[in-house]
Specification:
This protein has about 200 residues and is mainly alpha-helical. It folds into 2 domains: about 55 residues; about 140 residues, Ferritin, core subunit, four-helix bundle (Ferritin, Up-down Bundle). The longest helix is centred in the first third of the chain and has 53 residues. The termini are far apart.
Length: about 200
């Protein structure tokens, strides 16, 4: 009889212990289930915040001078490439053809550099020439022979004088370091273009 009572007490104690362990395990699982998604969500939000802070940070820091220069450089570069291609294909004058090929090649490279900067900075550049530049292109396209050559070299001389002034201004007065560096680095190329354009202008008179 005594043995039976002891056996029953032992079983009761064992059952109570098992229930406690199961409850603890369940509580732990519930706690994990409740906290894990929240922690993951917070981590994702933190990551998004960091990413959002970096993206476009440079673009937001650009001054009006930087934006004005970048837009003008992009549109001017597009015009130089298009007019250069036109001169290389249309002109029968070797000097003018060579000038056009150089302009298209050099300004094409500069345009690519500017696009890389814009992508890094999160800045959107114009994708087409302005109305005045389009008008110049259309007018030049209608010219033939000596008239074409004269108009093209005149445009190259006047445009590059303006370009040099604009690029020097950005190099000295711009706010964004990479854009200032691009402007300063490009000035010698523009000065060379002006010199060659003036030579071509003298040759086609």
């Amino acid at each position: 009889m005594k043995n039976s009572i002891l056996t029953m007490l032992a079983l009761a104690a064992l059952t109570a212990c098992n229930k406690k362990e199961n409850t603890t395990t369940a509580d732990t699982a519930d706690t994990t289930a409740m906290t894990s998604p929240a922690d993951t969500s917070m981590a994702l939000n933190d990551s998004a915040t960091v990413s959002g802070t970096n993206t476009g940070a440079t673009a937001n820091a650009l001054s009006d001078q930087d934006k004005k220069f970048a837009d003008a450089a992009a549109q001017g570069g597009m015009m130089e490439v298009m007019l250069g291609d036109l001169a290389a294909k249309t002109s029968t004058n070797a000097t003018v053809k060579a000038l056009g090929e150089m302009m298209a090649k050099d300004h094409g490279k500069a345009n690519d550099e500017l696009k890389k900067w814009a992508a890094t900075a999160g800045y959107t550049l114009p994708t087409s020439m302005n109305a005045d530049q389009q008008k110049k292109h259309d007018e030049l396209k209608m010219k033939k022979g000596a008239e074409f050559d004269k108009m093209y070299v005149d445009l190259m001389v006047s445009d590059h004088k303006k370009d040099i002034a604009d690029f020097k201004k950005e190099a000295s007065e711009g706010s964004e370091a990479s854009l200032k560096g691009f402007a300063g680095k490009t000035v010698p190329t523009l000065e060379h273009h002006l010199m060659e354009s003036e030579k071509a202008k003298a040759a086609v008179k």
